[in-house]
Protein 1
Amino acid sequence: METINWRDFKDVLIANPQLTLQFQYDHNKWVDASYHITEIKRTLINSVDCGGVLNAWTEVVVQLWEPQTQQEERAMEVNKALSIIQLVEKSLPLNPDAVVKVEFGISTYDTRQLLPKGFTIEGNNLIVDLRPDSVTCKAIERGGSCGTTSTGEECCAPPAQSKPKVQLINLASPAAACTPGSGCY
């Protein structure tokens, strides 16, 4: 799934300040209108994949909290979300190219980080369509394969180092041996 970066996410919000901000996390399942944006995280990821390759990227995680009891009849306006973002960015610089994730969970939906798939405007609502992230093999992302190849090589194993070929000479051979009086040293 294509990811949305922080710059593009913010640009959509900035373009629609008077709309009501809604989050849909599954078919006909919505984050309750009483949600709060409780924090925005800058997450620096540093990892080494199964092939020994170092990877690094940044994520911006917008955390939503849904109170036990409904406190609002209507979700927050985009303007309110932008004021929270502005407050956060005064203290915490956020990478405009960072991948955006939205963290959400309730008693009937385990907490997880979801990817914004896209935005829809319906009436006075700006709807952020959230979808689960998936795990991938970075070897495939680099154009390799995952698992064992037809030649028996593992995609995740470090590349085989070619060893120099050495020609062996049989020193015990009578033709190569020196004999007394032959003039060899």
Note: The chain is about 15% helix and 35% strand.
Protein 2
Amino acid sequence: MVTVFSIILLAIGLTIDCFAVSIAQGIQGVRLRSALVMAVLFGVFQGGMPLITYFVGTLFADFFTRWSPWIALVLLTFIGGKMLVDAYIEHRRSSSSCNRSSAPCNRSTEQDCQPSADNNQSSAISPQPSAVGVGTMLLLSVATSIDAFSVGVLFVPVPQLLWQAIALIALTSTGFSLVGFALGKILGRHLPFDANILAGCILIAIGIKIFIDGLMN
């Protein structure tokens, strides 16, 4: 039987992936505006997926339940892999900047080269705020909420609880996402390496986790 307490537990369970992705984005150093928009999108998608299932029926729910682990794995691996590639490219670019500007570095230019390394280390510890594209936001929203698509069928016997559940799921996802962004931003300031590396690895790990959970279920 679906109760308010079970809905609260369901909302918390569904928002774990959003929370982890938000931490990864916070580590990457996203801007406050991007974090707010992404948190709202996470809430809208998490609450919207069960709503769609409730009105459309079990036909699409069965389809998405079967393929959602693959979709989440592909989307999160793609975005996380892109972060790792970007981090590698940035590392190669920064490490070769000294050689391009003053090659070879002799005693008279060693001091000019050294600050560049210091700046790279400082940049890795405190990533500069960056904007997140709308496309990336939508992909992350879909990847983290697609497992909630089949939840709507739970409220067919209790339609009076549908809108309470949708609101609770959406608000919980948004709130947990904002907390995740804040925690990630704090953690990103203390990393001794490029924050994109950890953020990308987290997204890939979440995709693998969703995929394994989907296969086991």
Note: Confidence is low (pLDDT under 50) at residues 105-125.
Protein 3
Amino acid sequence: MFIRLFEQWQQDKELILDHHWISIDEISHYLPMAVVASEDNLFLRHQGFDFNQIEKAREAADKGKRLRGASTISQQTAKNVFLWPGRSYIRKGFEAYFTFLIELVWSKERIMEVYLNSIEMGNGIYGAEAVAQAHFKTTARKLSAAQCALIAASLPNPIKMNSGKPSGYMLKRQGQILDLMRKIEPINMGYGAKITATNKTTQVQLWKKYQLFLASILDE
């Protein structure tokens, strides 16, 4: 978030940084559902990496198609909290390492809490509470399903896509996300609910997946 401040300063723009850390218990349960529906359908089942999406992204790149994202919520959390922007192999390697680490020591609920407090959700607006106040004049706990779907729709580019002033494309995407929220595996986070990943693996299996992920990067 301080990198965004530096960019604003470089461009001679007003310095904006709005961030309020809150517990996941204070965040509407619709928001975890919306970001999982939009960003990472298998969040509860994978151990940090969605290898099917990584392979699809590689195939698309090999065919010269538009670069598509394959980062999971865990990877995005690692990037937002520990790393700098960029696409270098070194940064990708660190991203894989920190993703493996947080999946090893944090619960899925903790990963989601950090993600929803650290991700940019508007120009200089970071986290669920800040965007709830800035765009919807409410608190994160009172966000509706429709509002959460709009926030999720803005995440690919929260600078250009304003959840408080949605474009036609965003309203269409909101409808798609709301539909997906009704179909995905329930995300029972917040208000004291305990989350356990459905597809458990041993640490050895997770380490093997981490090695495969690094190998896939080095092969590119």
Note: The longest strand covers residues 120-122.
